[in-house]
Amino acid sequence: MVYVHVKAPDVKGHDNDPFEKAKAIEMFDQMVGLLLSSYLKMCIWL
């Protein structure tokens, strides 16, 4: 299990900007997906 705290959604939540908060979470989710995909491709070659 990994816990990551990303400040961008937190800030947007405090700014009462739910759409930007959702956008920040979606962008983080995409980034994690790209990192995981790259990692899995790398593991195939090991």
How do the strands and helices of this protein lay out in sequence?
Layout: H1 7-14, H2 18-44
Helix pairs in contact: 1-2
Organism: Peribacillus huizhouensis
Keywords: Isomerase
Protein name: 2,3-bisphosphoglycerate-independent phosphoglycerate mutase
Which characteristics define this entry?
46 residues, mainly alpha, elongated, Alkaline_phosphatase_core_sf, Metalloenzyme, isomerase
Summarize the structure.
Residues 2-39 form the Metalloenzyme domain. The protein is mostly helical.
Give a description of the structure.
- InterPro entries: Alkaline_phosphatase_core_sf (IPR017850), Metalloenzyme (IPR006124).
- This protein is mainly α and 46 residues long.
- Helix content is 76%, strand content 0%.
- The protein contains two helices and no strands.
- The longest helix is centred in the last third of the chain and has 27 residues, at 18-44.
- The relative contact order is 0.12.
What does the radius of gyration come to? 14 Å
Class by helix and strand content?
A: mainly alpha
Strand content: under 5%
Tell how many strands the DSSP assignment holds.
0
Question: What is the N-to-C succession of helices and strands?
Answer: HH
Low-confidence stretches: none
Summarize the amount of helix as a percent range. over 70%
What is the number of helical segments per DSSP (H or I, 4+ residues)?
2
What is the terminal-to-terminal distance?
A: 23 Å
Largest sheet data:
none
Shape: elongated
* Overall pLDDT score: 89
Keywords: Isomerase
Domain Metalloenzyme: 2-39
Organism: Peribacillus huizhouensis
InterPro entries: Alkaline_phosphatase_core_sf, Metalloenzyme
